[in-house]
Amino acid sequence: MAHAPTLPYWKGFDVGIEMQRCVDCAQAVFPPRSMCPHCHSDAFAPATASRGVIEETTLQTGSPPILFGSIRTDLGPIVVAEIVGEGGAPGTEITLVSTNKRQTGGLIAVVPQPSIKE
Ligand SMILES: [Zn+2]
Q1: How many independent structural domains does the chain possess?
Q2: 42 Cα to the center of ligand 1, angstroms
């Protein structure tokens, strides 16, 4: 899946979520770890996931209702996110943002950025 990492439209909206890419096996890792779960290396380079595809969703009822989704990111790992904007059906491509909830007119997935756990 190839996408432009950012479009001018999104500039300033904190597009992308920070992940790690293992230097030894090249797998992307999220949430951040001190050791690669694939090869046990501790050498990581930063990597940014900008886009994803919604795999499944759950609607939390309430006022207002909140739509959560499992999203397969363009780097591979699946993240759980709050889906903001019109649409959001499984199979939909979506832009990933870290914590910025400003409505931009587009469909976004808000992924909390976890800290590294030892
Ligand atoms: Zn690795």
Answers
A1: 1
A2: 8
